[in-house]
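Assess this one:
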Amino acid sequence: MMWRTLLLCQSSGFQKWVDYSDKYGLGYQLCDNSIGVVFNDNTKMVLDAAGEQVQYLGRENDEHYYTVKLYPEKLQKKITLLQYFKNYMSEHLQKAGADMPIREGDELARLPVLRIWFRTQSAIVLHLTNGTLQLNFFEDHTKLVICPLMGAATYIDSERNFRVLKLAALVKYGCPKALLDRLRYAKMMVERLMSAHSARPFSSVLTSVARHPSNIAGNY
């Protein structure tokens, strides 16, 4: 089993994840304390922060809602695995970042779900259904979270120092080369993840950052 702890970067960032895809799938915990699993059969399951409501997505992304006490018998194994991932991350992985408070009505909200994840030689890439993209780079353990809704990027360096930066400001003022290189890599991942139509608003900002002449070390 391979695991990594991810720093909290955005309101929907990943706190923890555990890769058990050699048998079952990938489990994760978001900063709102919801727990999710992407199973090897490409179905998905999410447990809310209160540990009561279950959201299940089938292979065709058809959505179903249950509770931990009331669900179809055919989901018994997946509910058990969901609880296993939850317990494992709670007992063995260090939490990074602050918890998001549970607000009234959150139990009725649709939770963000890990849409897709994959590994490259350089990073693990995690993309949520709300658009948030997180990359964890293997070589130096730096991390990048990009939130298109906020128009912002969070960068965590190898010393675990982090800063939140507006993408528009990066276009205008530039950024250090280390961050620029990761933004360029993120742009390639966005192009890989999304269709040309849905990716255009997201990718175009990253393109501006990557190509702007002021984006060199020392201008930040």
Summary: The helical segments are 76-92, 167-173, 177-193, 196-211. The radius of gyration is 18 Å.
